[in-house]
Amino acid sequence: MQKVVVCGHQPVTQAVLVELLTVPGASEVVVYEPDPQVIDLDSLTALASMGQHQFRRGGVKQLADADVVVLTDFADPASEDYLAVSLAAMRKIINEAMSESFAGKLLVTNHRDDILTYFAQRFSGLPRQQVLGVGTFGLTRIAKAMTAQALEVPVEVVTAYVIGSTTQMVPIWSRSYVASTPLLSLLSGDNAASDFLPRVQEALQGFVASDAAVTLPALVPPLLAAMSGQKPLIAPLTQLLDVDSEVVAYSRPVLLRADGLVTLSVVNGSEAEEAQLNDFVADFLTTVQTIESQE
What we know:
Largest sheet: 6 strands, parallel
Helix content: 40-55%
Distance between the termini: 39 Å
CATH topology of the domain at 3-135: Rossmann fold
Strand content: 15-25%
CATH class of the domain at 3-135: Alpha Beta
Number of helices: 10
CATH architecture of the domain at 3-135: 3-Layer(aba) Sandwich
CATH superfamily of the domain at 3-135: NAD(P)-binding Rossmann-like Domain
Radius of gyration: 19 Å
Structural class: alpha/beta
Number of strands: 14
Shape: globular
């Protein structure tokens, strides 16, 4: 039985717990040091009793044998000190986990999972393949679903990825396919692309602006299923990558399975798409350098 410890102090934390306690199957779900103003323990306990999941509150000792520690938001994403508060809380939990010889995986599920995945790996010292963020998984699902709907084809035959991060997303339309046919060639008639691509972009922006407590939790169960070995998954997830002489964390397609992340061949976009990604990398490094200079 997979043991999952969920950490955080925001509504998305409660929402993730609800999602985990309602998916089919059995797991052990622990909420780490819950804030009673945010986490409704009585209701969650009642919910768990309706299914096969075990549920409890826990502290440091529960981190020792966890298979996955899920790190949700610790502060209001709109607050100016969001990253500072998140980093401090995350460092505390990770230090406690490592003091208990934690050897599982860290799943970063929050608004700045690019920056926080980078520091989660640095704080923990865990192998890179064991530290990941939810990344642009949700954005990619939207791009694929809208493509399938527009062309009236099964979503399984659509290959489309949004990479980068939710703050700076880069849809790779130049490498998107329906079966073996390039997507852009299918959209070339009657200027279809001029209508379709902006509609997808609007939907992607809507996802980014949405309430994370509604949209993010649904992305967690398939990732946990992949990490348990039940259903390996190929998706764009935030991971640590070497870019030139720097270490950067951003979302790109990767295979997720029981032993963690397995790197796939790099999906290179068009010149314009790669330029967008380079802008993200530059901004990412600037943010990391600013944070490190303040430590």
